[in-house]
Write a structure and sequence with these properties.
This protein has about 350 residues and is α/β, with parallel strands linked by helices. It is built from 15 helices and eight strands. Helices cover about 40% and strands about 10% of the residues. Strands 1, 2, 3, 4, 5, 6, 7 and 8 form an eight-stranded parallel sheet that branches. The structure holds S-adenosylmethionine. S-adenosylmethionine binds next to loops.
């Protein structure tokens, strides 16, 4: 039976995620690329990524910079170092700078506010923050200082799996979906995402993740393979214990990731979708390009100074880790041109937004 695209309901998404026939998958790739071209066009927008701190107070089971990661040298960029990275991003022609870190209270609300103000006044770049779970007071102050967007992956739509892989801090509740909703109300463009193949993630859960992107009308969606870090519980024996039954567990493969990217493009046609560094890490030769021809339209080149970049080790063997920002830029532009696409100009924010459902638009 020919697999269909309409309606893209739960059963259909699960069916496509489980699909292995190359001829059928070719239809999925073609469809995702056509929807990408129709809704966000042929431009690939580049966002300069600055990894401003690898300090973290969380104990996420998957992440190499988790609080108790042994033997990791910690760093935190100064305001001047961060501004210098933003200048590099501007000089390389990028429209956005993304400030990312572990969940680091050492990056105080005031510090980030000042950094945003300096970047905005000196470079005029769009500013995206990816600093984890922060207070509403901080989020409002950063928006007022000029921040445009905030990336916060919900990691999984399954509450039980979330609780296991992303333990809440003592005495607190971790609710990333609630923070995403509040940030939308504050005026941020909101970004989210998941890892593909995290132990315990079933096809059913991954389909619900994709449906949650649609329900939340997420503006930017980052999807990459889970890459085990030996510094973490999920890089060791715990992973085996957490895995779902063999016919249910999503593999952390390039193919599973590309299917999730393509289906996300179909259910969220207007969203900005990065071809992630994790995809480039799992397939250094073709991962970036395959993401871009199967639904993605964004790349986030790293502009962190190389001496710090090696310390932001969320998983080992990260792509482009030793290259300078300039070398990274040349390589990426070449890859983008090789697939017949062009580098986007300007901030590259979300272009259009369908009418939001009444319940959400309150
Ligand atoms: N601390 C912020 C947060 O948690 O939102 C931002 C930094 S965090 C390191 C960025 C993302 O890296 C996470 O949302 C997670 O999805 C991804 N990540 C962490 N460990 C990973 C791993 N082992 N493999 C693939 N992606 C990983």
């Amino acid at each position: 039976m020919l697999r269909t695209f309409d309606p893209l309901d739960h059963a259909t998404i699960v069916g496509w995620l489980r699909e292995t026939d190359p001829v059928s998958l070719e239809r999925l790739w073609t469809r995702a690329d056509a929807v990408r071209a129709a809704h966000v066009g042929g431009e690939v927008h580049l966002r300069g990524l600055v990894e401003i701190s690898n300090h973290c107070i969380r104990h996420c089971l998957y992440c190499g910079i988790r609080a108790c990661s042994d033997g990791l040298t910690r760093y935190r960029l100064t305001a001047e170092e961060t501004l210098a990275c933003a200048r590099t991003a501007r000089d390389l022609g990028y429209g956005t700078v993304v400030l990312q870190s572990g969940e680091d209270p050492g990056l105080t609300g005031e510090f980030i506010t000042d950094v945003i103000r300096s970047i905005k006044s000196e470079t005029g770049l769009a500013v995206t923050l990816s600093l984890g779970e922060r207070t509403d007071e901080e989020l409002r102050a950063w928006k007022a200082a000029g921040a445009d967007r905030f990336l916060l992956r919900f990691e999984t739509s399954d509450p039980e799996l979330y609780r296991r892989i992303h333990p809440a801090l003592p005495g607190t509740l971790s609710d990333r979906v609630a923070q995403l909703r509040r940030m939308r109300e504050m005026g941020y463009e909101i970004g989210s995402g998941v890892m593909v193949g995290i132990p315990g993630q079933t096809w059913d859960i991954l389909a619900r993740d994709i449906e949650l992107f649609r329900d939340l009308d997420i503006d930017m969606i980052g999807i990459g393979p889970f890459l085990p870090s030996p510094r973490t519980p999920l890089g060791g024996a715990v992973a085996e214990k957490m895995r779902a039954a063999a016919d249910q567990q999503v593999p952390n493969s390039e193919l599973a990731t590309l299917k999730a990217v393509a289906l996300t493009r179909l259910v969220c046609p207007e969203a900005n979708l990065p071809s992630t560094t994790a995809l480039a890490t799992i397939d250094p030769a073709n991962g970036r390009e395959l993401g871009l021809v199967r639904g993605a339209n964004i790349v986030m080149p790293n502009v962190t100074p190389p001496e710090y970049r090696v310390l932001y080790e969320i998983y080992p063997g990260k792509a482009c880790i030793h290259e300078t920002a300039e070398a990274c830029q040349g390589c990426l532009e070449g890859r983008i041109h090789s697939i017949g696409r062009v580098v986007g100009k300007g901030p590259g924010g979300r272009l259009t937004r369908r009418a939001r459902p009444v319940a959400e638009a309150r």
